[in-house]
Specification:
Length: 494
């Protein structure tokens, strides 16, 4: 690197350092003159905003850790002491507590932008996967941080979430015991979670570095989703996008500050301010708002996989076989399945719908006891409801890793794919609806009539159908609108 071309700096100290360690030349190349598509909109601000929020979380978290006591007998009291006795402790805690919510807001908008504009497609697959890894690490960090105040909500949330692992056959109980450090949520759990909660943000920062590195190798996507054709399509990152990012960051931080100082507990639950008591279960255990859609997916799976549900899934697999593998290039059994799926798609979809309805209703209990309908072999369950819910919850996140291969349409941006655009906007609405369902109790009803459980199940169905059925089908069948010749041409016409 020392043999590469260096930038010239007027400051003698900077120039002296750069001659020996060309870090300033690297920064100038990667963030100063780095060629960036000239048609970015404000959706592209949220990567930088998320980075600022991550740094805010790390700094405020380090300060809080100086005053926090990771012991079951003192954790809750130490948090209260931070709020009352530590200089500006209340502000630091609220900055950290609400910073997590605003960090997730920025990341969710960042993810939506990536899906909407096709930022996961070649050559940015690894960039997207690193982003999903960051998101998974964020979820783990946030869950452990939720437990640290040692409140009723945090302690019982740890009990519920760790209990998911018991659904895994054979090794589930061992994993739960290893995670908790015992057979229940107690002092070893708190110590483990505090240690990991302190470590993971630095790991996130490291993966963010790789994420940015991958971005600077493959280059940025843009709202048109077309490649840069030449220097006329780009602008230097500084000062054009540093100024734009600064403005967007200022607006975002203004909202963050308003919430932190005027509505600091707007995202909190009352039971989060009551000390953890393992002998008293809260009436309603809920995770933080940014996990609610996945919590709704978990609760929506109130049925296991019996022969009828299995038949429904098999019929859907056969229907989708021509989409995933195609009949032309396959031989033998694969070719037969593809031909059957293509010729009898409507019949297979009808079979899938009827079989699913029968399998579902055979597992719905009447108020008087017993199943709603009795069918042969309906009690033969291959995957029980608990395991199905856990697999669906984790699968709903892991699916994002495979998005570059689920959507293989040559056009990236939803601007030129009307069906994909509609489906993606519906996914965003569906995600919000699932969040609302996850926030309410399991027996709640919309307008007192429609059970939210049904709405959550429909929302879960659309979520998985979007990724596993709609995207692959649209990749092969959607006709896109004409693309502009270049970014510069589109900008001049706008």
């Amino acid at each position: 690197m020392s043999s590469g071309q260096r930038a010239e700096f007027k400051n003698p100290v900077v120039s002296w350092i750069d001659e020996r360690l060309p870090v300033f030349s690297m920064m100038q190349k990667e963030y100063g003159v780095f060629p960036t598509p000239r048609n970015f909109n404000y959706f592209w601000n949220f990567g930088a905003i998320a980075m600022v929020m991550l740094i805010t979380m790390i700094v405020s978290g380090i300060v809080l850790a100086m005053h926090y006591t990771p012991h079951a007998d003192h954790a809750f009291s130490s948090v209260e002491r931070i709020m009352r006795d530590v200089n500006w402790g209340w502000m630091i805690r609220y900055i950290h507590m609400n910073g997590a919510s605003f960090f997730f807001i920025a990341v969710y908008i960042h993810i939506f932008r990536g899906i909407y504009y096709g930022s996961y497609k070649k050559p940015r697959e690894l960039l997207w996967i690193l982003g999903v890894i960051i998101y998974l690490l964020m979820m783990a960090t946030a869950f452990m941080g939720y437990t640290l105040p040692w409140s009723q909500m945090g302690g019982w949330a740890a009990t519920v979430i760790s209990g998911f692992f018991t659904a895994i056959p054979v090794v589930g109980d061992m994993i739960q015991t290893l995670l908790l450090g015992g057979f229940s949520v107690d002092n070893p759990t708190l110590n483990r979670f505090f240690s990991l909660h302190y470590l993971l943000p630095f790991l996130i920062f490291a993966v963010v570095f790789l994420h940015v590195w991958a971005l600077h190798v493959s280059g940025s996507n843009n709202p048109l989703g077309i490649d840069v054709k030449g220097p006329q399509d780009t602008l230097p990152f500084h000062p054009y996008y540093t100024m734009k990012d600064t403005f967007g960051l200022g607006v975002f931080l203004l909202l963050y500050v308003i919430v932190t100082f005027f509505f600091p507990n707007i995202f909190a639950h009352p039971d989060h301010f009551v000390e953890y008591n393992p002998m008293v279960t809260p009436p309603h255990i809920v995770p933080e708002w940014y996990f609610l859609p996945f919590y709704a997916v978990l609760r929506g799976l109130t049925f296991g996989v019996n022969p009828y549900i299995g038949l429904s899934l098999f019929a859907l697999i056969v229907v989708m076989a021509p989409v995933y593998c195609g009949a032309d290039k396959k031989t033998g059994l694969c070719s037969i399945i593809c031909v059957v799926g293509r010729k009898y798609a409507v019949l297979l979809l009808a079979i899938a719908a009827v079989a699913f309805a029968l399998g579902y209703l055979s597992q719905v209990e009447k108020a008087t006891g017993g199943a709603l309908i009795s069918l042969p072999l309906s009690n033969l369950v291959f995957v029980n409801a608990k395991l199905a819910g856990v697999l669906a919850m984790f699968g709903s996140v892991i699916l994002l890793v495979f998005l570059p291969w689920l959507d293989t349409h040559p056009v990236r941006s939803a601007r030129f794919r009307p069906l994909f655009k509609t489906a993606t906007l519906l996914l965003a609405i569906d995600f919000v609806i699932l969040g609302y369902v996850g926030m309410e109790t399991a027996d709640a009803a919309l307008f007192g009539v429609i059970p939210l459980l049904w709405i959550g199940q429909l929302g879960t169905g659309y979520y998985f159908a979007y990724f596993l059925m709609l995207l692959p089908w649209l990749s092969r069948n959607e006709k896109a609108q004409p693309l502009p010749a270049s970014i510069n041409e589109a900008v001049l016409k706008a």
